[in-house]
Amino acid sequence: MYLPDEIPDAKVLITVKTYPLPSSKYEELVCTAGFLNNGKWIRIYPIPFRTLSYESQYSKYHWITLDLVRNTSDFRPESYRPKHGIENIRIGPKIETGKNRDWAERKQYALNEIFYSMDDIIQLAKGNERKSLATLKPREIVDFVIEPDERDWKPEWRDQLLQYNLFDLDEQGQGKLRQVIPKLPYKYFYKLLSKGDKKPRKMMVEDWELGALYWNCYRRHGKDEAKANELVKKKYLDEFCTKDLHLFVGTTKQFHLISQNPFVIVGVFPPPKLQTRDIKQAGSSSFTAEGVQQKPLFEFD
């Protein structure tokens, strides 16, 4: 057994937050994942993140504490859910980086188990282990690809989200329409080579911070989509490829058993190459992945 069915007072270092998706039951859902203090991967789902109080909203590299129970509707061994509801999540300290601290503490967890071959990860996912989360060190990043996508959520999703909620009342006691998180109008992919690959793999990036970066750049540059995508690509290709880039990869339950490669990129881990002083200094970009504020993602004009 990967982990016990129940984990009381689980301490989880959050390293993955995916871009929110609509849910008829929970408003938007965010898939979060990270490491237990014993170094093992764990996925916490579902988390209706926007319904959390401000004090309970955690960012990446926060430690959180909560009682977890296995998510029996999900066959993936890393999948758990809060036992007593999301309101009982306790936020602990955050592992920072910067002038006064380096990346060593984050590396203890993120680089505890590294894979160099996507084929090896996929083999574990398809076998009895059913592995669905891993850290990949790509051999080479070939390109960062941006493709147009549908510009709005499916009508049934949007209609459900816009329904009145009896508990969402304005100052006059009238029901308020919910604000729907904007859908990213583009899809983003890394083309990469891992150990043993003869041709590049194209893997979608579903990181929360990529979406936040796009919307921040979009607003900052007068709603210019081309400029926003230019800056996203500059960050994820030009800057990250100068670093010791690792990728957090995870499966979706829907495609885990049926897709040839069921993994998407759910997060990036870009510590500087410490042996080069210039590259360490390059970490102070005006668009830092870890520093993207979450709040602007939910501001609407």
Write structural notes for this entry.
The chain is of the alpha+beta class. It has one domain (6-149, 184-274). 19% of the residues lie in helices and 28% in strands. The protein is built from 6 helices and 15 strands. The protein has helices spanning 104-110, 118-126, 155-162, 208-220, 225-239, 277-281, and strands spanning 6-17, 21-23, 27-29, 32-36, 41-44, 62-70, 79-82, 90-94, 114-115, 133-136, 140-148, 186-193, 201-204, 246-251, 263-269. A 5-stranded mixed barrel has the order 1-4-5-7-6. A hairpin with an 8-residue loop joins β6 (62-70) and β7 (79-82). α4 crosses α5. The longest helix is centred in the last third of the chain and has 15 residues, at 225-239. The protein is globular. The chain starts with 5 loop residues before the first strand and ends in a 20-residue tail after the last helix. Mean pLDDT is 84; it is low at 278-301.
Give a quick rundown of the structure.
With 301 residues, the chain is of the alpha+beta class. 19% of the residues lie in helices and 28% in strands.
Keywords summarizing the entry:
301 residues; alpha+beta; 5-stranded mixed β-barrel; 4-stranded mixed sheet; 6 helices; globular
Average pLDDT over all residues:
84
Percentage of residues in helical conformation: 10-25%
Q: Are there runs of 5+ residues with pLDDT below 50, and where?
A: 278-301
Order of helices and strands: EEEEEEEEHEHEEHEEHHEEH
Please tally the helical runs, counting DSSP H or I stretches of 4 or more residues: 6
Radius of gyration: 19 Å
Oligomer: single chain
The tally of structural domains comes to 1
Number of strands: 15
Spatially, the strands of the biggest sheet line up as 1-4-5-7-6
Q: Write down the overall geometry.
A: globular
Largest sheet: 5 strands, mixed, barrel
Secondary-structure-derived class: alpha+beta
Strand content: 25-35%
